Give the backbone structure.
Amino acid sequence: MSTTFTPAGLRAAVAAAIRAPSLHNSQPWRFRLSDGGIEVRIDPDRLPQVGDPNRWAARLSCGAAVFNLRLALAVAGTPADVRLRPHPHDLDTVALLVPARPRPATPAEQDLYSAIPRRHSNRRPFWPNPVAADARWRLIEAARAEGAWLEMVIGAGAVQTVAEIARSANRVLERDCAYRAELTRWIRTSPAVDGIPVEAGGPVPEPQDLLPQRAFGVRTRAPGRDFEPEPLVAVLGVQGDSATDQITAGQALQRVLLTATDSRLAVSMLSQPIEVPRAREQLRLALGRYGTPQMVMRIGYGQPGGPSAPRRDVDETIDLA
Ligand SMILES: Cc1cc2nc3c(=O)[nH]c(=O)nc-3n(C[C@H](O)[C@H](O)[C@H](O)COP(=O)(O)O)c2cc1C
């Protein structure tokens, strides 16, 4: 096993990295490759300016990409030492990954790595079956292993409270014409390399919906067909809200999402209550947690397969040092 990353290994790792989730599938990342490693940077030209004015979403997305890089490099036999924000004065450089001592990948790394191409957001209704206790526990452990917490919202009253916070955040965002126009710009009705294809968008929202799905889809529901009545809602959070905390949250988010895929669970994300500062604080108080919520998720058993969002070509995201 090599003590340096090989060019082919680096490219394969970036191919895994770009499968990470991102706000509106904006893919706000660049990867600078050199003999010494991979630098992950925010691409300022790809940010949803209205939806992500402070680059919270870009840091979460790049953090998720870092987690995929870690898995790919570990599975290739040379894991990475990761330095978050290696140039403290440069806010756009998210992480530097350099070769660590070679070792065989663990079975857990192999399982999560193989889940990368199977993971995608599922915005459709899930089956009503409750998520098994051991699967919930695996998700909580996945967040903890990356220095984050995952709070499962338990009980109909608590779910109602979180849902009301999310709906009210959605109303605040929807009142802003610039926000609505930006959201529309990321919806794709014909083949594209970014944005959200309407087929991946889930059914058109209806007034009785408990959770506010973003209106990416065009399909209306058959009469009486609703979302699962008691969704499993979980909130991911970390200790603070610095740039480093947000990158940490991104890595934890991806570990949770891949663990869910590995447990045959489907997930959709709802970030409206994170994007509206007052809603985020209400959410934190409702959970009774220190630290900051970074993502809300709906988790359940969905139909396998389903449409996934496209990605740009891997070579378009790479800069060679
Ligand atoms: C920071 C962040 C915020 C997101 N917010 C939402 C959201 O509010 N609603 C939603 O349906 N998906 C949300 N997503 C999921 C993205 O739309 C999705 O990851 C992207 O379209 C790529 O698709 P994929 O997850 O299927 O690979 C979010 C993802 C990230 C990383």
Summary: The two ends are 24 Å apart (CA to CA). The first helix runs from residue 7 to 17.
